Amino acid sequence: MTWLRDAGSMPDDEARGARAPRDSVRTAGGVRERPGALAEDVALVRALRDGDRHAFEELYQRYARMVHGIVLARVPREEADDIVQDVFILVLRRIPDLRDEAAFGGWLAAIARNQARDFHRRPPPPAELPDDVPGGAPADGEAEWILEIVRGLPEAYRETLILRLVEGMSGPEIAERTGLTAGSVRVNLHRGMKQLREKLAERTRP
């Protein structure tokens, strides 16, 4: 499993994240974007407001990994896909309320975080366990074990780590999509990887 291997072997310079591209710019909301990517997002958001479904599909393709990573940092993996869908449904409803089109990524990230938090406020559904449920660890138990460790890290670290390790997003891409500065992403990745390695070492120590 690629991200599992990365969790134990990512070099420190990679964990800190690459520097933001030289042609990146900061918007009024503090969001770093490459000018071309920013202009495209702004155009897509405006088109979506006008009812263009193709614009919605394009924004979904651009941001689904980010939303999935933010959600996965907070909820069980089997619940993440449904919550991602809920997030994008809310985007359709709330897009008229977005005042700054250039801040779309940070606005979307905030919706994803709120939806993930709301999940934990819901009453658990009633469930009956059948008698013939097989015992033992799940086939993907090791990945779930590490995910559980990551979820125990501070919120900023776990979110950035999952976007990097699970969703495969680069440092500059995380900054570009979430609205965080490139410097914050580098710090979160570096400190998060350090804490993750320490916790993995503690769990595997004889």
Overview of this structure, please?
- The protein is mostly helical and 206 residues long.
- The chain has a single domain (2-8, 31-123, 141-204), classed as Orthogonal Bundle (Rna Polymerase Sigma Factor, Chain: A).
- It has helices at residues 2-9, 12-15, 35-49, 53-72, 77-94, 104-119, 141-151, 155-165, 171-178, 182-204; strands at residues 25-26, 32-33.
- A two-stranded antiparallel ribbon has the order 1-2.
- Helix 3 crosses helix 4 (53-72), helix 4 (53-72) crosses helix 6 and helix 5 packs across helix 6 (104-119).
- The radius of gyration is 18 Å and the shape is globular.
- The chain starts with a helix and ends with a helix.
Q: CATH homologous superfamily name?
A: RNA polymerase sigma factor, region 2, helix turn helix motif
Strand arrangement across the biggest beta sheet: 1-2
Mean pLDDT: 79
Task: Report the count of strand segments.
Answer: 2
Which architecture would the CATH scheme give at its second level? Orthogonal Bundle
> In one word, what is the shape?
globular
Please give the domain count. 1
Radius of gyration: 18 Å
Distinct helical segment count: 10
The succession of helices and strands, N to C, reads HHEEHHHHHHHH
* Strand proportion: under 5%
What is the CATH topology assignment?
Rna Polymerase Sigma Factor, Chain: A
How is the biggest beta sheet arranged?
Answer: 2 strands, antiparallel
